[in-house]
Amino acid sequence: MTQLSQDRPINIAIIAMGGQGGGVLSKWILDLAESQGYMAQYTSVPGVAQRTGATIYYIELFPAHLAEQAGKKPVLALTPIPGDVDIVIASEMMEAGRSLVRGFVTDKTTLLASDHRDYAIVEKQEMGDGRRELDNVRRLSEQSAGKFICFNMDDAARSVGAVISSVLFGALAGSNALPFERSAFEQTIEDTKKAVESNLRGFALGFERAQGQLPEAEKAEIANPSGQPSPAVAPLLQRMKQDFPGHAQFLITEGLKKLVDYQDPAYADLYLDRLQKIADLDRELGGEKRSWGLTKAMARYLALAMAYDDTIRVADLKVRASRFDRFRDDVKADEGQIVHVSEYLHPRLEEMCDILPAGLGGYLLGSKAWRAVFDRFLGKGRRITTTRLPGFLLFYMLRSFKGMRRGSLRFKKETTRIEEWLEQVKDAARIDYELGCEVAGLQRLIKGYSGTHERGLGNVAKIMAAYADFKNDADATEKLKKLKAAALKDEEGVALAAALDEVTSTRAAA
After folding, report:
1. Which of 267, 315, 352, 385 is the most exposed place for a label (fewest CB within 10 A)?
2. What are 359-363's contacts with CB under 8 Å, separation 24+?
3. What's the CA gap between 483 and 481, in Å, rounded?
4. 435 within 8 A of 333, measured Cβ to Cβ
5. DSSP letter at 287?
């Protein structure tokens, strides 16, 4: 894709969501074009209730000297026409997909896209992983566009304290699609006299990335990819490398990180003890020929099971400095601005008893009198501001129970559940290797805490009750897959109930 000629109109479509500065970017392009001898017009068509609304900004640039030669004013369009767009700028990867579907991208188009995601409501509302696959969007973009420039512009903007619109503007300049010098782009930003320094930083980074250059910080990271592990973690990594297959070591490493952060190195060592039993069985069943699928599945799901969400974990996450930093970054707070964070809590007796010593927690949980007292004084929903000292100290105190977690009621219950699940996985794998992997994947259904966690446990219990009847069937793996998928359809369990009825009736008919 060569630079567009100064002797022809230029059509540009920007597809951005609310809050991403699509209007600012459009205004920059208009000001730039007018300063370079172009007549310019832009319109916008706002979206409706899609991740705050995706808006199409359409810009037409017409060389003023051509209008003067013809002695007429051009008639500029109000909306992009499929097949007649020179430059498409997509602020997010799904928006790049929309531009492809609408026919805006052809072999004469320069497509600039950020490959980060702001998930759609339909993706967020699913109980499982509802994210849409985007590899096909990238592949089709590469095939369809005359020139395709794609990188995470949102992360790039955050890394230099800028907004994504400035990085998009820089990528546009770096693409060489417009017949303007870099200095003209920069002058346009300076002329606005608004957040000039940060916008120029974002512009420079976008320009460099569009031209295939890596910022110095990224070069240094590639040259020195990682430091030495801490003395407490090094023995765990050494054991992993000695005792586990290479195919699974990436997932195991992530599991170790999670569990050391969750509890301590000794708890991560217990993870390796449990996983070792699965790896030994996998080796016995010829797992090497199957790329160690069972070990990899359990490396992932066992770490999730052991890092269950209890009150201690929730409190720990809520008072981490990185969380407050992320909130400030999300709202783009300036230095010195105060950002308050309020947490909504609706505690139940179960969550409080779970973190107490097993004997005491079990006694209080079974006491009607204690439940009545708890519900009267603590059982109401309330908001607690963790950016104020009282609220912060409350969560910090709950976080300090971490050292006593191994003696808690919840730890006792989770240990029993995990050990039973491990035996179920091993028994299923001996029947059929793929069936064992599917039983391992039941952990996907158990997540969160409070009512969400209980619903997940209830769904697994229903599935395992049915599984006990069909586990020896030739199609047991497919049946289990179907039940797991149904359990993730809705919170009410309607789809799962229908799937269980279908499985039961099919077996009865057979």
Report:
1. 385
2. 361/408, 361/409, 361/410, 362/409
3. 6
4. no
5. G
Residues 421, 370: contact at Cβ < 8 Å? no
Cα 407 from Cα 240, distance rounded (Å): 27
Contacts of 214 (CB under 8 A, 6+ apart): 208, 222
Return d(Cα 112, Cα 13) in angstroms, integer: 10
- Domains delineated in the chain: 10-222 (3.40.920.10), 311-410 (no CATH)
**Residues 12, 170: Cα–Cα separation, whole Å:** 15
Cα–Cα distance for residue pair 383/420, rounded to 1 Å: 38
List of residues 6+ apart from 402 with CB closer than 8 A: 263, 312, 316
Name 61's bridge partners: 10, 40
Q: How far is residue 183's CA from residue 195's CA, in Å, rounded to a whole number?
A: 18
pLDDT means per 10 residues, the chain with 510 residues, are 72 80 88 92 69 75 86 83 91 86 91 82 62 78 92 88 91 93 94 91 92 58 53 89 91 93 94 96 89 93 94 92 85 84 86 92 90 82 90 92 94 96 96 94 87 88 92 92 89 89 77
Compute the CA torsion angle 277, 283, 287, 292 (nearest 10 deg). 50
38: which residues sit within 8 A by CB, 6+ positions away? 10, 61, 62, 63, 64
Please say whether the beta carbons of 483 and 439 come within 8 A. no
Q: Identify which of 42, 37, 40, 31 has the alpha carbon closest to the alpha carbon of residue 64.
A: 37
Distant-in-sequence, close-in-space partners of 252: CB < 8 Å, separation ≥ 6: 240, 244, 272, 275, 299
Contacts of 365 (CB under 8 A, 6+ apart): 349, 350, 353, 409
In the numeric block, the tokens 């696959």 are attached to 133
Neighbours of 415 (CB within 10 A): 13
Residue 462 to residue 471: CA distance in whole angstroms: 14
The predicted-structure confidence for 350-397, as pLDDT tens digits, reads as follows: 888 999 999 999 999 899 998 888 888 777 888 999 999 999 999 999
Which residue in the block uniquely carries the two structure tokens 């129970």?
401
CA 459 to chain centre: 25
